[in-house]
Write a structure and sequence with these properties.
- It contains 7 helices and 5 strands; from the N terminus they run H-H-H-H-E-H-E-H-E-E-E-H.
- The chain is α+β, with helices and mostly antiparallel strands.
- 24% of the residues are buried.
- It has a 5-stranded mixed sheet.
- Helix 4 packs antiparallel against helix 7.
- The protein has 2 domains: 46 residues, no CATH class; 136 residues, Beta Polymerase, domain 2.
- A hairpin with a 2-residue loop joins strand 4 and strand 5.
């Protein structure tokens, strides 16, 4: 599975690679994003190793640590680490909320955290991107996007199904970690 084995997070890119490898020319019969993600979740349910599960727990723990650091910006975890589909190449994705993007940069500078400024479009219909930062936290790549404070009320559309993107607060991430530990011991 290209998404898992090669860390291709963009499902369109994964489909293009799959078509090229199969010698297919058209995309008419290719699965959509929803089907690709459902297949990935089904595959993980069957084939995820204990190491894969431990890595997901470690990524969520690392995300929670980063979320504590960015606490004053109401951090939310999004993406594959939240959904449970994160693999070896996955980055932690956080949404922060501040009307001053520079305040986030200053917070990182004050703690000597190295970062690179980035901009990400959340949908094809969105002409301008969301500002943010790429950094490492405990050796894990992290992407932080900074939304205006009022952006906390309305999630951007998911690139998978177009519905509002799932977001998790620190409390919810902590519960996910506790639930995972309870399953191991229960």
């Amino acid at each position: 599975m290209i998404v898992w084995d090669e860390g291709v997070q963009d499902y369109n890119q994964a489909r293009t690679k799959a078509c090229a490898r199969l010698g297919a020319s058209g995309f008419g019969d290719m699965p959509g994003n929803v089907e690709v993600e459902a297949a990935l979740k089904a595959w993980l349910k069957l084939f995820a190793t204990n190491d894969d599960k431990a890595r997901l727990a470690w990524l969520r723990t690392t995300a929670l640590d980063a979320m504590r650091f960015f606490g004053r910006f109401d951090p939310r975890l999004v993406g594959s680490v939240l959904k449970g589909t994160a693999g070896e190449y996955s980055a932690i994705q956080l949404h922060l909320f501040s009307d001053d993007v520079e305040a986030v940069a200053i917070e990182m500078l004050n703690h000597r955290i190295r970062y690179q400024a980035i901009t990400r479009r959340q949908s094809r219909r969105q002409p301008q991107g969301i500002p943010g930062f790429a950094l490492e936290w405990d050796g894990v790549p992290v992407e932080v996007l900074v939304f205006p404070v009022d952006g906390l009320r309305v999630s951007p559309p998911s690139p998978i199904d177009g519905k509002p993107m799932q977001r998790a607060s620190r409390e919810k991430v902590a519960r996910l970690l506790q639930d995972g530990e309870a399953r191991k011991t229960g």
